[in-house]
Design a protein that fits this description.
Aspartate Aminotransferase, domain 1, Aspartate Aminotransferase, domain 2, binds pyridoxal-5'-phosphate
Length: 456
């Protein structure tokens, strides 16, 4: 089981820079008191993050009520692409609330109309349609349903296999978790769908064979006929790394899907809206999916997700057959619209592209300095990871990763708890508006923490 961050206040070294301010005891006694109240009422699954009670968050900073300020390398969990509490997003929400128009169920509202039009205008094909939902998991569940429905209708009752990848994450509801590639997450499901199958993800680290041949040979070894595959779903990058597939692999996958009448879906819940230095993450692969899922960074704030895709697939269900009570909520749509316009107007995608090489260089430098305990340091745009390993192996070192996150937290750098296979991945994902100076300061804190923990 994952470790809980300690609730014992300890005096930290005072930090006072433009981006970080910390003094006295961390966690503060006020935070400890509030967190204990929370813990009494919540399941322990919600105890996984460093002990700060967020009071305010602006730009690239998170504040507690006692005057401490953290530099944020989490963006929530890759939510606040435009930055925390962006004034345009706040203003759009305020205007919508003042209407007041807070909900309409599936009756039309203008923010929803504007948002689906805007997302469609940004899609890689002009005829793609947009279906709004609330969470990332809802969007991948919907993609699963659409892929299988399309397979069954286009190829008959045998065309129902869905291919996903080992180590994938697509959410925690029943369909999404079956798409996921972590066996432990699926233990609670008694009748696992035998036609959701997983193939190795070609990350080049855990799976050194990055050839597309491995995709095909794995299906053959499982006796799966390509013509029976209804769809393939892949995170554009696997959150556990972030792991990217080679561009040639993605392009071969696209051709393979076309050859066998299978749909290709990219889960862009993390990768979309500028995170990788491109509007859509799949632009890195010069490959267009039939469907893609959006969430997290779509609004930089309120819950909203979407499935975007080919009109013949999106129209598989008739009126009122594919809906959700809070789909297209006007307040969430107003926030998402303001967020998308902000990301574009403030050229935050260009900023992510410009700072991508800086982040890559800094993480590579940390890996070079600690080669025995940092096994892999992938990065693209403003998402990166440091994979902590047991000395000289590829085995994840959860304890070290956890200690690094905890150590950084006590130095005023905020990251979420380690993720990934065996919990070895320290994930770096600041808001896309971060400056080079702040990015370098955060990376220096990471390096200092590694030095302290490894006795360098
Ligand atoms: N897909 C990906 C790639 C994700 O990273 C996540 C969440 O981390 C999800 C889906 C699930 O999103 P949600 O937690 O909003 O249901």
């Amino acid at each position: 089981m994952a470790r809980e961050f300690p609730l014992t206040p300890e005096i930290v070294e005072t930090v006072s820079t433009h981006y970080r301010k910390l003094s006295g005891e961390i966690p503060t006694s006020e935070a400890v008191e509030s967190i204990l109240r929370m813990r009494a009422a919540e399941p322990q699954s919600m105890r996984g993050q460093p002990p700060i009670v967020w009071d305010r968050a602006e730009g690239c900073n998170v504040f507690d009520a006692q005057g401490n300020m953290w530099l944020d390398f989490s963006s929530g969990v890759l939510i606040t692409n435009a930055g925390h509490g962006h004034p345009s997003v706040v203003e759009a929400i305020r205007r919508q609330i003042d209407g007041p128009l807070l909900t309409t169920y599936c009756f039309p509202n203008m923010p929803r109309i504007r948002l689906v039009e805007r997302l469609a205008s940004l899609a890689p094909r002009p005829d793609y349609k947009v279906f709004l939902l609330c969470t990332g998991g809802e969007s991948t569940e919907c993609a699963l349903k659409l892929m299988r429905t399309h397979g069954l209708r286009s190829g008959g009752s045998h065309k129902s296999v869905i291919v996903s990848f080992d180590d994938a994450f697509h959410g925690r509801t029943m369909g999404a978790q079956q798409l996921g590639g972590t066996p432990s997450g699926k233990r609670w499901i008694k009748n696992l769908d035998p036609e959701i199958v997983h193939v190795p993800f070609p990350d080049g680290f855990r799976c050194e064979d990055t050839s597309f041949g491995l995709f095909e040979s794995t299906l053959t070894s499982r006796n799966i006929e390509p013509r029976n595959v209804a769809g393939v779903i892949a995170e554009t990058y696997q959150g556990v790394g972030p792991n990217f597939m080679p561009k040639t692999y993605a392009q071969e996958l696209r051709r393979w899907c076309d050859r066998h009448g299978a749909l290709l879906c990219f889960d862009e819940v993390q990768a979309g809206l500028g995170r990788c230095g491109t509007l859509w993450g799949f632009e890195l692969y010069d490959t267009v999916p039939d469907l893609f899922c959006l969430g997290k960074g779509i609004s930089s704030s309120l819950p909203l997700s979407a499935v975007v895709g080919r009109p013949d697939v999106m129209d598989l269900y008739g009126p009122n057959e594919m809906t959700s009570t809070h789909s297209g909520n006007p307040v969430c749509c107003a926030a998402a619209l303001a967020n998308i316009e902000t990301i574009l107007a403030e050229k935050l995608i260009d900023n992510a592209a410009r700072l991508g090489p800086v982040l890559k260089r800094e993480l590579a430098a940390i890996k070079n300095e600690f080669p025995r305990v940092v096994g892999f340091a992938p990065a693209e745009g403003l998402v990166g990871g440091l994979l902590a390993v047991r000395p000289g192996t590829k085995d994840p070192n959860y304890d070290l990763a956890w200690d690094v996150v905890n150590g950084c937290f006590r130095r005023g750098l905020l990251m979420f708890a380690p993720v990934g296979v065996g919990g070895g991945c320290i994930k770096i994902a600041p808001p896309l508006r971060i400056t080079e100076e702040a990015l370098l300061e955060g990376c220096a804190v990471l390096r200092e923490t590694f030095r302290e923990l490894t006795g360098h």
